[in-house]
Amino acid sequence: xxxxxxxxxxxxxxxxxxxxxxxxxxxxxxxxxxxxxxxxxxxxxxxxxxxxxxxxxxxxxxxxxxxxxxxxxxxxxxxxxxxxxxxxxxxxxxxxxxxxxxxxxxxxxxxxxxxxxxxxxxxxxxxxxxxxxxxxxxxxxxxxxxxxxxxxxxxxxxxxxxxxxxxxxxxxxxxxxxxxxxxxxxxxxxxxxxxxxxxxxxxxxxxxxxxxxxxxxxxxxxxxxxxxxxxxxxxxxxxxxxxxxxxxxxxxxxxxxxxxxxxxxxxxxxxxxxxxxxxxxxxxxxxxxxxxxxxxxxxxxxxxxxxxxxxxxxxxxxxxxxxxxxxxxxxxxxxxxxxxxxxxxxxxxxxxxxxxxxxxxxxxxxxxxxxxxxxxxxxxxxxxxxxxxxxxxxxxxxx
Length: 399
Hints:
This protein is an alpha/beta fold. The protein has helices spanning 20-23, 29-32, 52-64, 74-87, 103-114, 130-137, 155-165, 189-202, 241-244, 261-265, 277-289, 291-315, 343-351, 377-398, and strands spanning 39-40, 97-100, 120-123, 141-144, 172-177, 204-209, 235-238, 252-256, 320-321, 329-333, 353-354, 356-357, 368-372.
């Protein structure tokens, strides 16, 4: 599968469109959780304005009163066309796709299709904390298969987890994060093929969260899980929400491999009532008509990755940062700073900058923090300045 490089769009960097004063007028979670003097670089919201095609789609729906219940397959068709062009994957079958409210609610529905109450769900920590929360809320039991020291899947550890999860003949699922949040790891075709073989050998059903799939940089390439040999019984969740900043316009797609179509067909019809019709219009417009905006965003994010690495080397050299090949999230190893298991607490208390603490990401999260670099270079620079000031202040407090 040959990666199709993103285009040079000629569009301006979306991350430079808004000032800090403009951002502070927002009423979403990122900008309202903390006091006004706190600089928020935590939750996965981007500091951008939406692309023109999305604005037009939503505006036209409002003006025409097209605000009813969702219908049709336009979203799936748009994603299939995007996947064919972007990832050289023509295998996304519209007839094996269904709309769901968002990726995590879709994950829960997929887990309900392939496991029962009390069954194990394997995850790869450090990993997106809602994997734990949603699985447990669905009365499933978490089994950890930690990433290797290199931040990649450890296939030996994964096989042991699969073997233990299915011991005695029970059902089990594997919740795969691809690309991985928080490390930004992009799993290779070889790794995913090995995962599929292990899953089939042990009877584990794979549910892949691929929400960050469009956000891949440089020479790396995203490989859809359902595209690799042996993944026919897999299930995937995809959405335009992360790449185009549409989290408030709820819509996602559950996609089944050729051997999982019957499973997806058992999903209750009422689940399809949950997505927003206007959200579906927005996501469809993004996938069809706003790829130039996405390419400009990717260039801006790539520049921010390099900026962050330079700022940390200069001001916080004890922080270990390995830029990921995907997502707009930076996973920072702060263990050498002496700030304890949750360095984000110290950054907030002493620097008035909000990051996401590492412990909720599971094994391997202690001593780490996640930083959202989908912001302007100025905000990113100020965030690191505040982090460095927090370290100095925490040191003085200990003295």
